[in-house]
Amino acid sequence: MRARDDLGAATADRAAVAALGAGRLVILPTETVYGLAADASNPVAVAAIFEAKGRPRFNPLIAHVADAVEAERIGVFDDRARALAAAFWPGPLTLVVPVRDRDRVCDLARAGLDSVAIRVPGHRRARAVIAAFGGPVVAPSANRSGRPSPTTYADAVEETGGAAAAAIDGGDCAVGVESTVVSVLNGRVSLLRPGAVTRAEIEARVGALDTGGEGHRSPGRLALHYAPDAPVRIAATAARGGEILLGFGPGSGDPRWSLSPTGDLREAAANLFRMLREADREHPAGIAVAPVPDHGLGEAINDRLRRAAGFVG
Ligand code: TXA
Ligand code: MG
Question: I want to staple 309 with a disulfide (CB 3.0 to 4.6 A). Which of 76, 148, 168, 232 is the partner?
């Protein structure tokens, strides 16, 4: 059985590499969320991603590479960018740095910017496919624009599978929220999107983050995002008729609908998008989500919840 599974996986991975080479789209598992991937150097393939997601073209994509050597071919890394790459790659950190090679990651993929977002994913099969393909692969989350990111194979296929020529089932995403996006530009290090690597983990490597208000410079930070169809609000109880409560911690609602019954932020992150989707299907009247502490991974969880609820300053 194991041998047959391995054979099936190898066949799927080969099909994915061939599809990327042919300028087609691929459902690619990563440790954070599922991505919809394409050859970063091919503007026609990249245009198909924007089309499939209904994504505004001013919102640039992340180039995924197999290792730091490949990353330095497409972007310019100073000492602090290198320190962050060394500490967190492969893993859920995206670095925005000045672009070095404008062809390997085409203009459309960068939304015309002079910077490029790069990450080395922690998922072994994603890295193997990218290495076999032999160049950077852009991969936004595989949801249609504005919807919750898919963290299971089934959710990814439901969202954008129709646009993909190949799909890899890499299991459920272990992390469950997207990568942390950090820019290292003009000697300043700024947090553009809170994510799986925490603010404290970044600051432990490069010192205090710049607070010059760079956050708005990530063009993808739209107010309403990650949103299911059902209205979402942050509240300790499900007061309204038909609403479901997604709890957090002991004594918070029905354990079947708890992000983490023990109050564990990692578990809550891993469950977040899958549960929002399940709640959306089963409780269209509304979703209340119990408050989650704002430290560590909680910063990313609360960021996604505020956007799912549609209130963000
Ligand atoms: O975990 C992840 O990062 C997932 C998996 C699939 O790798 N990908 C992901 O991609 O979340 P996406 O496209 O949904 O989010 C990319 C974010 C957006 O907020 C975008 O605006 C920002 O990165 N971004 C990309 N390039 C940028 C740049 N040059 N400057 C500033 N922000 C950039
Ligand atoms: Mg996304």
Answer: 232
For residue 238, the model assigns a pLDDT of 82
Same domain, 116 and 258: no
Q: What is the count of structural domains for the chain? A: 2
259 shares its domain with 198: no
Rounded distance between C-alpha atoms, residue 210 and residue 188, angstroms: 6
Give the atom of ligand 1 at the shortest distance from the alpha carbon of 220: 21
pLDDT at 312 over 70: no
With the most atoms of ligand 1 within 8 angstroms of its CB, the residue from 33, 62, 119, 273 to mutate is 62
Distance from Cα 95 to the centre of ligand 1, integer Å = 10
- Rounded Cα distance between 97 and 216, Å, is 16
Domain assignment of residue 99, yes or no: yes
Q: Do 172 and 237 fall into the same domain?
A: no
Q: How many residues does the chain have?
A: 313
Indicate which CATH number applies to the domain containing 105.
3.90.870.10
First to last CA, the chain: 52
d(CA 88, CA 1) in angstroms, rounded, equals: 35
Atom of ligand 1 nearest to the CA of 115: 29
Residue 225 lies in a domain: no
Each residue of 260-283: pLDDT tens digit?
Answer: 999 999 999 999 999 999 999 998
Which residues constitute the domain of residue 74? Answer: 2-217
Q: How far is the CA of 152 from the centre of ligand 2 (A)?
A: 15
